[in-house]
Amino acid sequence: xxxxxxxxxDYEDILYHKADGIAKITINRPxxxxxxxxxxxxxxxxxxxxxxxxxxxxxVLLTGAGxxxxxxxxxxxxxxxxxxxxxxxxxxxxxPRLNVLDLQRLIRSLPKVVIALVAGYAIGGGHVLHVxxxxxxxxxxxxxxxxxxxxxxxDGGLGSSYLARLVGPKKAKEIWFLCRQYSAQxxxxxxxxxxxxxxxxxxxxxVRWAQEILQKSPLAIRCLKSAFNADxxxxxxxxxxxxxxxxxxxxxEESNEGKQAFLEKRPPNFRQxxxxx
Length: 277
Ligand code: S0N
Prior knowledge:
Elements: E1 6-10, E2 14-19, E3 22-27, H1 38-53, E4 59-64, E5 74-76, E6 84-85, E7 88-90, E8 96-97, H2 100-109, E9 113-118, E10 121-123, H3 125-132, E11 135-139, E12 143-145, H4 148-151, H5 158-167, H6 169-178, E13 182-183, H7 184-189, E14 195-197, H8 202-214, H9 218-230, H10 234-250, H11 253-263
Parallel strand pairs: 3-4, 4-9, 5-10, 9-11, 10-12, 11-14
Antiparallel strand pairs: 1-2, 2-3, 6-7, 7-8, 12-13
The structure holds o-succinylbenzoyl-N-coenzyme A (S0N).
Family: Belongs to the enoyl-CoA hydratase/isomerase family. MenB subfamily.
Function: Converts o-succinylbenzoyl-CoA (OSB-CoA) to 1,4-dihydroxy-2-naphthoyl-CoA (DHNA-CoA).
EC number: 4.1.3.36
C-alpha cells in the first residue's frame, strides 16, 4: 500500500509525518538502537499532542527508524543508559527525568488509535511503549523483552500491570523476572502482538490497518478505547470515559436546550425529552 507522507515538523530525535488521516512518529536515534533521552520523549509528546489536536488524524503509527548501519532494526531499546544518573535520565538542562511516564499516559488517553509497528528490538522502556499502544504489528525480525532487573530499573506501572492484562500474570512475571528475549512468533502466541508480517511489509500493513480503522465511526472508536482502559486506569480512566459521555451529551438536543434556555433567560423545557427505559 503506497502512501505519500508529508513531514509535519522537523525534530532532532524523531521524524513526524502525516498522510490521509494517519500520523507517523518514528524514533530516530539509530546509533542507540532508538533508545530515548528526555528530548526524544519531549518531541514524541509534542507530536502526539499535535496528532490529538488535528481533527483530520484518526490513527497514529509509532515506529523506529531502521535498518541501522549494521543491518539490524530496533523499535526502541528503552531509556538511554548512558545518561541515566541517580534520579532519572539527564537532558541537556542537567535535570534528571522519567518523562516517558507522561508519554505513556498520553498514548493511553489519546482519543485516537495508536498502532506500534515493531521491527527489531522492543526492549526495556521501548517494550513498554509498544505494550501501551492499542495495537502492535510486529515484523518477523521483531524481538521483545524487559531488561529492568538486569540493568537496574523496573517499570512497576503499566509496564507490568498492563503487560499482565495482555499475556496473563504468570507470563508477565516470567518476562520481567527472567529478562529473556522473545521472537515475533512467540509474542503472537502469547497475545503480546496482533499480527506478524515480513519486515519489508511492516509499514504497508500498518497503513492498511489504519485505513480500515479510518472507515469506522470516530466516536465509537473513541468511546471503545476509553472503555477498554477505564477499569485499569482507575479514577483517571473513569474520568476519560465520563468525558466522552459529556461530549456525546453536548452533541444532543437535550443538552442544547439547557444552554439555550440560560442564554435566552427563560426556564428550560426538558419536558419535551423522554425518560428512556
Ligand atoms: C537492544 C539490544 C538488545 C541490541 O543489542 P545489539 O544489537 O547487540 O546492539 P548493541 O551493540 O548492544 O547496541 C548498539 C549501540 O546502541 C547502544 N544502545 C543500545 N541500547 C541502548 C540503551 N538503552 N541506552 C544507551 N545506548 C544503547 C549500544 O550501547 C551500542 O552503542 P555503541 O555501538 O556506541 O557501543 C542491546 O543494545 C540492549 O540490551 N540494550 C539495552 C536495553 C536496555 O536495557 N534498555 C534500558 C531498560 N530500561 C529502561 O528502558 C527504563 C525505562 C524507563 O524510562 C523507566 C520507565 C518506568 C519506570 C522506570 C524506568 C527506569 O528507567 O528505571
